[in-house]
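Researcher: We plan to redesign the surface later, but first we want a full-length starting point. Tokens attached.
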């Protein structure tokens, strides 16, 4: 039975995005081309332009899809969920080409023809939602603002992964993320919650292994 046209179009779009992620991960935005993405996706150039008007549109799609590689692995709530987001993210950056490409595009924007802060803003909103739950549950110290901490976490994670990439190609990123939280948790969580927060490389591995 022939594949329905709508299903085929969805599958083609997904293949283009996947191929684009591979090319962006390897070459960056400036080194990628629509023709290379077409070849990697094994579709016609017309099919690529049917779904995306230009390379910038594909890059934005890849850049803003980062949470798709992380959020399906989560089961916790509140402050633990904020921790778990970063643990899964740190591990997936080593294994998930779509996430790596999205992060590379977001970080390298100073050399691009466009600026798009929506991926950073998206992560900030996700963190803020976790931390608002943490606040409602009485997990945070009185001085901790969920919105301020959310913005700080986006910046901290960006810096940690950049440093890890430069030094060790991110091989130590999960441990660095664990260390970050070991330093942060005592200062942001109330004492009875701080002792219950789980943060370890083993937890990162277990969460990343959850089937999506």
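Model: Full-length starting sequence:
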């Amino acid at each position: 039975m022939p594949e329905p046209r709508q299903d085929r179009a969805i599958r083609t779009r997904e293949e283009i995005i996947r191929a684009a992620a591979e090319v962006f991960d390897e070459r960056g935005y400036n080194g990628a081309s629509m023709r290379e993405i077409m070849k990697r996706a094994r579709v016609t150039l017309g099919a690529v332009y049917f779904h995306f008007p230009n390379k910038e549109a594909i890059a934005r799609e890849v850049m803003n899809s980062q949470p798709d590689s992380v959020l399906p692995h989560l089961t916790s709530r509140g402050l633990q969920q904020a921790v778990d987001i970063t643990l899964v993210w740190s591990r997936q950056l080593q294994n998930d080409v779509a996430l790596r490409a999205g992060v590379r595009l977001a970080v390298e924007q100073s050399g691009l023809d466009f600026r798009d802060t929506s991926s950073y803003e998206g992560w900030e909103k996700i963190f803020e939602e976790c931390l608002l739950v943490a606040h409602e549950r009485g997990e945070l110290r009185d001085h901790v603002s969920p919105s301020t901490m959310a913005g700080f976490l986006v910046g901290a994670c960006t810096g940690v992964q950049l440093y890890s990439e430069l030094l060790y190609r991110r091989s130590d990123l999960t441990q660095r993320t664990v260390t970050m939280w070991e330093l942060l948790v005592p200062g942001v969580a109330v004492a009875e919650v701080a002792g219950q927060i789980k943060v370890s490389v083993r937890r990162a591995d277990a969460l990343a292994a959850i089937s999506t």
